[in-house]
Design a protein that fits this description.
The chain is an alpha+beta fold and 478 residues long. The protein is built from 13 helices and 16 strands.
């Protein structure tokens, strides 16, 4: 084996349930030291330090502050942008750097302390955390929302993802209740995995009937018990090294996990321009490329972790992979984002650390996928206890062509997908729709409370609506 062959040799995870807990910098340091100890690597020896964007706090120099804590002087440093694919892209960059001889070891770490932030807010206090950025940097979008999406207030995933869910539901001819029941049936086994995971945020097994009975809607038809739980205090880290360094450190062969292949692909950055709201071409393209690079197939996988922020992410991935959502291998090794925890951009790092631990205990192959933004960005990684394959690179293997967005529209149109926003008190606020119109698609809001309530009780996809506009915001009625 080439001495530069990258392998994962150190893992660490932490979940803090007592609030207020540590700040993100403390969590980064904790998991970094634990992962380095697991790798038998002195932290100050790290050649690369990379950190996943944290929503909890903006530091003046995230990587610099962690390196200082660790006494490290890495040649390579990186801080990611926002998105659920960020951990895998950093891991891919670390593996590529090791393979190219740019450095021989790398740490990828991530942490969120959003539960602690919430605790401080409820107490009317500001988080007393260190080294704040001044001025505060702009939010870490790779690309800001489309002006029309902003004008309609449609940029939160809790509203964009259910629009795609309703499009798929209508495509398959499912009733509203059938979709909810099927969602509960898919996600109930995930709660059992979380219950057995010591790092999971929600460790209570739930039956399908219990999940289906939940009517605490957020972005309808999604309920609180079936979407990612963001306000968590969690951290994870992995350490990668070249095989030569792993040999010198005395890392046993059974502790080394190899990235056999990975790939990245993109659907559209907005919901309305997506060629098909009900499916994901990019998810399938990423998986095919990753498996081809790994020299393996889906059937060779012993364990799977499919990104699960919302049910549509699971469903579109399973559709694209040809994977039964009730596959006996299960869809998650952690419990998924709704139950193990959805620490903003960081979840894939937890899934990777958990997968590595499983493959150490039971040699074989595993797949970990990631999703970013509005089902825009997709990664698929194949991990193995056996070396082989070829890494791949971050160049997208698929980029979707966009349907034009008509920002201001008056006239008739047909609903392509929709959702209804609910407040924290559970009350219907308004609806959001993507409407097929001449020349493309338009965003629209459903302001009439009676119509928004009606939209939850019958299928609105395919409904002809009347759209009016003030030049910025389109309003749909029927």
């Amino acid at each position: 084996m080439d001495s530069r062959t990258p392998c994962l040799i150190g893992i660490a995870q932490r979940t803090i349930r007592e609030q207020p807990g540590p700040e993100p910098l403390d969590l980064w340091e904790s998991v970094a030291r634990e992962a380095a100890e697991d790798a038998r690597l002195p932290p100050d020896r790290l050649g690369s330090i990379q950190i996943v964007w944290t929503d909890s706090w903006q530091y003046d120099s995230p990587v610099g502050r962690l390196a200082e804590r660790l006494g490290a002087h890495p040649r390579h440093r990186a801080y990611s942008a926002v998105g659920g694919t960020a951990p895998q892209r950093l891991i891919g960059e670390a593996a590529a750097g090791i393979a190219a001889g740019e450095f021989d070891s790398a740490l990828v770490a991530g942490a969120e302390a959003l539960a602690t932030r919430r605790a401080y807010r409820k107490a009317g206090e500001h988080a007393p955390w260190s080294h704040p950025a001044d001025p505060k940097p702009p939010y870490g979008w790779e690309r800001p929302p489309h002006p029309s999406a902003l004008a309609h207030g449609l940029f939160m995933p809790v509203h964009t993802y259910p629009i795609m869910e309703t499009a798929r539901r209508a495509r398959l001819g499912l009733t509203i209740e059938e979709e909810m029941s099927e969602r509960a049936r898919i996600m109930a086994p995930m709660t059992e995995v979380a219950a057995a995971n010591p790092y999971a945020w929600r460790r209570t097994a739930r039956t399908a009937d219990e999940l289906a009975a939940d009517r605490r809607f957020v972005g309808w038809p999604y309920t609180r018990s079936t979407v990612a739980v963001l306000e968590v205090d969690q951290a994870a880290a992995v350490v990668l090294a070249g095989a030569g360094l792993a040999d010198r450190l005395g890392v046993p062969e059974e502790q080394r996990i190899y990235l056999r292949g990975w790939a990245y692909a993109e659907d559209t950055w907005e919901v309305a321009p997506r060629p098909d709201l009900a499916s994901s071409t990019a998810a399938g393209a990423a998986a095919r490329a990753a498996f081809e690079r790994a020299g393996l197939e889906l059937g060779d996988m012993d364990a799977l972790d499919v990104y699960s922020c919302f049910a549509i992410a699971l469903r579109q991935a399973c559709d694209a992979f040809g994977l039964d959502p009730c596959d006996p291998r299960g869809l998650t090794v952690t419990g998924g984002l709704p139950y193990a925890g959805g620490p903003a951009s960081d979840y894939v790092l937890h899934a990777t650390a958990t997968m590595a631990g499983l493959l150490r205990a039971r040699p074989g192959h595993g797949m970990v996928t990631g999703v970013g933004m509005h089902l825009t960005k997709h990664t698929c990684a194949v991990w193995s206890s056996e070396p082989g394959g070829r890494l791949g690179d971050p160049s997208p293997v698929h980029v979707a062509r966009e349907v034009p967005v008509v920002s201001a529209y008056s006239g008739s149109g047909v609903v392509a997908g929709y959702t209804v926003a609910h407040g924290r008190d559970g009350v219907v606020e308004k609806g959001f729709a993507v409407v097929e119109v001449p020349g493309g698609r338009a965003y629209a809001v459903i302001e009439d409370e009676a119509l928004a309530t009606e939209a939850e009780q019958r299928e609105l996809v395919g409904q002809e609506v009347r759209v009016s506009t003030d030049g910025k915001v389109n309003v749909a009625r029927w």
